[in-house]
Amino acid sequence: MNRNIYMTDELQAIYDQTVAFVRAEVTPVGDEWEQAGRVPREILTEMGELGMLGLRVPEDRGGLGLGPLASATFSEALGASTFAGFDVTVLVHTDMAAPHLLNAASEDQLERFLPGVLDASTICAIAVTEPDAGSDVAAMRTRAVRDGDGWRLNGTKMFITNGVYGDLVIVAARTDPDERYGISMFLLEHGTEGFDVATKLDKHGWLCSDTAELVFDDVWVPDENMLGAEHRGFYEIMKNFQNERMVLVGMGVGAAQEAIDLTLAHTQGRSAFGATLFDLGAIRQRMGMNQAKLDAVRASLYHSAWLMEQGVDATKEISGVKAWGAEVVNQIVYDCVQFHGGTGYIRKTAVERIARDVRILPIGGGATEVMLEEVAKRSHVGSGR
Ligand SMILES: Cc1cc2nc3c(=O)[nH]c(=O)nc-3n(C[C@H](O)[C@H](O)[C@H](O)COP(=O)(O)OP(=O)(O)OC[C@H]3O[C@@H](n4cnc5c(N)ncnc54)[C@H](O)[C@@H]3O)c2cc1C
To answer: Cα–chain-centroid distance for residue 322?
Structure first.
C-alpha cells in the first residue's frame, strides 16, 4: 500500500528502494565517513548507476522526468540513513544545485555537464551565501566584471556544501553594481585558476558533508559558462528555493521518524520502576504527541510538493512547513535524546547524531524568521482557504 494519497506506485517504489539502499550502504559505514569528513565518491557513483541522481532530469536527457513529489519522497527516504551529512551531500547535488542547470542551462551546457550529474562524475554545489550576506541574498558582494569574451570574478562564498570535494560550483555574482538584484550565475569548475577552497569548515553536525569557504581571486570565466541570462541570476536562485526548502524538510522528517523509532525501541526495551520506560505515562503520551506532530508535518510537506507539482505557487505553504516543520523536528528529536537518558548524550549513538544534524534545519536554506515573513507577506483574509 502506498504511504499517502500523493504517492504513486512509482514513488512508493522509489521510497522503498531508497530506504533499503541507505540502510544497507550508508548506515553501517557512516561513522567512518563522519570521521573522514567526506562522503566517498564511490557511493555517489553507485547511486548514479541505479538512476537515483536523475529523478528530476527529463527522460530524453537520461533521467526519470519526475516532479517535486519525487524529491519529497527521495529526501524523506534518505533521512532513514540517520547520517544527514550524507543526505545533504546527495540533495545539494540533485535538488539544490543541478536544478539550476535544468532551469537555465544552454544546450551546450547541458551536453557538457548533465551526463556527469547523472553518473556522479560531476558533483555540483551552489554558492550563494557570503560572509556578509546570508538571509539577505541580494546584499552579496562577489563581483563579476566583463573582460573580453568572459568575466572576472572576485569575492568569497561561505558555507558551501560540496564546495570542497565537488566538481562544479554554480556561483552567484553581482554583474550590475547599480542594481540591487543585478546578479548573474556562473558555472565554475574546480581547478580553474584563481578559484580556491580557503577553508574546509568544521561543523556542529552534518559531519560527513564537506562545507567550504570559497575564494575567487581574478577568476576568468568564459561567456559560455554564464548560466542563464545576464543580471537574471537573483530570480533564477529564487526559482529553486522552494524545492531546496522542501527537501530540507523531507530529510528532517525522515530523520525524526528514525529518532522516534529508535526511542520507541529504547524505551520499550528498558526496564524501570517495575515495567518499561515506555509504560510511564509521561513518556508514552509525549511520544504519541511527537508521532502525531510528525505525521502532520509530513502531510503538509507532501501537500506542498503536490501544489508545486500542479504548477501552483506554493511559496506560502513551503515557507510555512519549512518554518514550522524544522522546529517541530527539533522539538521531537530533543525529546528523543531526553528519553534515551545518558545514552542519548553519548557520541556515536544515532539519536545524538540526529540531534546535532537537525539543528541546522531552522537556519539553512532560509531561517525560520525569514520563512515566517514569506508566510506573513502572503497572509490576508481568506488566503488560508
Ligand atoms: C552546514 C551549512 C551548509 C550550507 N550550505 C550552503 C550552500 O550549499 N550554499 C549556500 O549558498 N549557502 C549554504 N549555507 C548557508 C545558509 O543557507 C545560511 O547560513 C542561511 O541562509 C542563513 O544565513 P546567515 O548564516 O548569513 O545568517 P544571517 O542572515 O546573518 O541571519 C542570522 C539569524 O538572524 C535571523 N534573521 C535573519 N534574517 C531575519 C529576518 N528577516 N527577520 C528576523 N530574523 C532574521 C535568523 O534567526 C538567522 O538565523 C549553509 C549553511 C550551513 C551552516
So the answer is: 12
204 and 259, same domain (yes or no): no
> Which residue has the CA at smallest separation from atom 41 of ligand 1?
370
pTM above 0.85, yes or no: yes
The CATH number assigned to the domain holding 45 equals 1.10.540.10
Domain end marker among 103, 122, 141: 122
Tens-digit pLDDT profile for residues 104-125: 999 999 999 999 999 999 999 9
Task: Using most ligand atoms within 8 A of CB, pick from 159, 171, 186, 199 the residue to mutate for ligand 1.
Answer: 159
Write down the number of H helices and E strands in the chain: 12, 10
CATH number for position 145:
2.40.110.10
328 CB near ligand 1 (under 6 Å): no
Whether residue 382 lies inside any domain: the answer is no
* Same-domain check for residues 245 and 355: yes
Q: Angle at which helices 233-269 and 68-78 pack, to 10 degrees?
A: 40
In a domain, 255, yes or no: yes
**Model confidence over 241-253: pLDDT tens digits?**
999 999 999 999 9
For residue 20, tell me if it sits in a domain: yes
**Closest C-alpha among 246, 238, 235 to residue 317:** 246
Q: How far away, in angstroms, is 135 Cα from ligand 1 center? A: 5
Q: Which residue is closest in CA terms to ligand 1's atom 44?
A: 369
Q: Which residues participate in catalysis according to the annotation?
A: 244
Q: Which residue's alpha carbon is at the smallest distance from atom 4 of ligand 1?
A: 159
Is 60 within the bounds of a domain?
yes
Ligand 1 nearest-atom number relative to CA 360: 53
Which of 136, 215, 206, 139 is CA-nearest to residue 171? Answer: 215
CA–centroid distance, 290 to ligand 1, in Å, is 27
Q: Read off the C-alpha cell for 60.
A: 530524453
